[in-house]
Every structure is written in structure tokens, then in C-alpha cells.
Amino acid sequence: MRPGPALAVAGAVTAVAILVAWRALRDLDAVVVSGRSMRPTLEPGDRLLVEAWTYRRRSPQVGEIVLATDPRVPQRELIKRVAALDDGALTIRGDGTASTDSRAFGPVAASTVRWRAVLRYWPPHRFGPIT
Amino acid sequence: MLTIRRLIHPTRHVAAHCDLPCGVYDPVQARIEAESCLRIIEKHDASEDALFRARCIHLKEERAELVKHHLDVLWHDYFKPEHLEAHPDLHDAFWQATKQASKVKQTLDVQAAKDLLAAIDRIDAMWKSTGGPEKTRVH
Q: What is the mean pLDDT of residues A93-100?
């Protein structure tokens, strides 16, 4: 192969790789947990990686930990576990003993839930996937 | 968009929110009010003073209402579906206890007040068996 086409191919591959990486990073974010309603799964101060590509393909599933806008305080982003999915309506619940969730404000629309918690990266001694 | 800066110092806060973060529950709160009802009824019955008896009735009704309130808080906020699995009669226990509290509110029946204590103790046993004392009280 002559250098010309080889360079063009390498350039195209690099461009695609950068695009894919950029899109992946755009749908990845780091968040910090406040509040105790997800104990013992999540503690206040835990830092998590959240991703937004899964729910482009499918609806949230029961058992997954998701970010949802608080229907009563729209500027607050909640982190809760999906307890039920019924015809596009998600029932979300805290794992802890005391939690304000769908029991207080009803189900949230699955279509408004974009982010899923996947990994705790801080503190290091509790590093690992979120289940 | 994930950046090294955001990873090291996330600015996006997600709330594992609870309106009432205290998480302290104990059926003893309801029991103390129910014990008050029993004692008030006994004092009422032992007295000849019309004014004192009227006060007894008023206070007893107030205490009985508090029993219902404390039981409701336990029922709504402490007990969870997994507790119901372990105690299928949980809803019935609360229904019976709150109905009994209504009865104590309406009557001056000593036995009704004693039955209320027993109904609360049934709930107390469920609270204990689900780890309530360790999970919800300050030690």
C-alpha cells in the first residue's frame, strides 16, 4: 500500500475513535451522594460514575439505581432504586429505613430518567460496581 | 461530560433524600400514650369529682389520638415490603391496633385499654424481629 491511502485510513480511524471517545465521555459523569436514604448501599459522600447510554436503548429495570428529578423540587436530582416499572411509570424507592420516594410523591415517568449509577470510585476501600 | 476535574471534584450532587432523616422509630412511643389512657381511665373511675372526670375524658381522648398517630408513623415510615413478607399479618396488626385505639378514645373501658396495650405489643414484636431496636434507636 502506498503511504497516501494508508495515512488517509489512519486519519479516518483516529477521527472515528476520537468521536466515539467524546460521545462516551459526554454520556459519563461523576456525582457525589448526599443524604442517607440509600444506606447501606450508598453512603453520604460516596462518589459514583453514572452513565446515560443504557437508557437510550431500553427502559430502566427493577433493581437498578437511577437518577431522577424530584417531582416536588425539580432542581433536586434524586438517587433511588427502581422498585417497579409499570407502563412507563417508575416506582423509585430508597434502600434505607427512612426515605422520601415514590411512596411520598408517586411514580416518575421512565422517559425522564436518563442516568444510571454504575460504579463507586470513592472511597477506595468501597470501590466497585453499584448493585 | 466526564473530565478529570469532575472526577476529582464532582459538583453534581445526587440526593438520597429523606424529608425526615431522623429514622428513629419505636412502638414504645405509642405504648406510653396507651398506658396513659389506661391509668387515666382508672383515675376517672376512682374519682367523684365531675370536673376531674371531665378532664380525664378530655386527656384520654387526646392520648388515644396520639397512639393512632405514632402507630401510623411506624406503619408508613418504618415498615417495608420485606417486613410484610416476614409478617403477613402486619397490616392486620396495625388495623386492629388503630381500631382498638379508636375504641379507647370513644369509651371508658379498662379492658379496651388493656387490649390496646396487647395490640401494640404485637407490633412491638414485629419491630424487634425486623431489627428495629438496632436499626432505629440511638445506642
A: 86
pLDDT at A33 over 60: yes
Which of B17, B80, B82 is the best mutation test for A, with the most CBs of A within 10 A?
A: B17
The gap from C-alpha B110 to its chain's centroid, in whole angstroms, comes to 21
Q: Output B23 or B16, whichever has higher pLDDT.
A: B16
User: Is any Cβ of chain B less than 8 angstroms from the Cβ of A23?
Assistant: no
> Is A106 within 8 Å of A24 (Cβ atoms)?
no
Q: Are B127 and B74 in contact (CB under 8 A)?
A: yes
CA distance B91 to A22: 53
pTM listed for this prediction: 0.54
The whole-angstrom distance between residue B122's C-alpha and the CA centroid of its chain comes to: 12
Alpha carbon distances (Å) from A91 to A85, B31, B124: 6, 33, 29
Query: Which residues of chain B lie closer than 8 angstroms to A104, CB-CB?
Result: 19
